[in-house]
Predict the 3D structure of the following.
Amino acid sequence: METLGVLALLLLGVSAVVSTELPAPRIKSIQTLNTNYTLRWEWDGGPDSGDVTFTAEYLARFKIKKSRKYNWTTVCPATSDLYCDFTAENLYYYGIWILHVRAQNGSLASSWAEVQFCPDRDAAIGPPSAVVLSPVKGLLQVAISDPVSHRNASMKDLAQDMYYVIQYWKEPLETQTPDNLTTRNNLVILPDLESWTWYCVRVQSRYDFYDKASAFSPTYCEQTDGQMPYWQIFLYFLLSLALSFLCVLGFSLCFMKSFKVVKNIFYPSIPLPTHIQEYLCDSPGSDMPALLTTEPEAELCCDRLDVLTPDAMIKDVVMEIHAPPQDLEDESRNFIRHNSGDSGVYSSEEGSGQNSRALERGEEVKLEKMGRISFRAEPAERTQDIGV
């Protein structure tokens, strides 16, 4: 009986210990691309899992065989995330590594969940980092940039047997099957293409040693070039000729319009009335306007004279008006011309006054010589008479 009691107590203690131990995480996957590695796991610890943290470590597999003392390298200590990034650890690409993770909550800890990982075998390769298309003599040249590691180095340095599969087709894709071209080169010219046609291209990376194939790169489209047809050259020539003609015609019309406007401003097409032309010009056929009063008009200006006879009865009075002497006329003209620059109006008045006084003196002398009449000039009673 005592033995049975002791066994019962031992079983109860073992069950209590098991019930208080945390469950181990379950590794979900290793997300890889080139040399980027991320370990992901799942864990369901029940309602008391809020304060649980996780620790992830790694170790090279060959070290486990040599010694039982393992120096694990901790990457993510006490993290609450369900993943751990091993990219910065620079794991050797051809080596085999042991990755493990466990859960912990205070003094409680779960067992380790581990996985074996070889980058050369397990890591996925990515598509080309860049693809550039350019037309060359009716064909397409494809420039491929290698996929790169997290250190921005070419993946061909790690996977030396990597090559590319180029798929290309003529738009639209629904009417045909894409053509495939396999190459290890980074610069390829696609053969058997039609001129002046749109083609689309995408590239895939492949590594046959572990049967790896990347996703396809984005699709790029480009039009091929070629020799221009003769009818198209002739059409472009006609279009350029028509445009040149229109430009010359438009320039000519603008020039003629401007010329007409300028001509109408300085030489109007509607002539002035005849009486205005005679007033402005010396003669009807002259284009030079007469700004000053003409000399003949100044000579014809005279005053009216009252003539008295001794008999106080005048039957026949004859008054003749003669032009002044030539020397007096020249003197008057010179006087008018010399003073026209200072004041045109005063010059005309002074010249007209001198001519009038000269006419009066000439008539008085003539009448006194005749002896027939005696006259007396009464300036106060004179009235001005203008003769043309």
Notes: The two ends are 175 Å apart (CA to CA). The CA atoms of residues 6 and 12 lie 10 Å apart. The chain has a mean pLDDT of 76. DSSP finds eight helices and 20 strands in the chain.
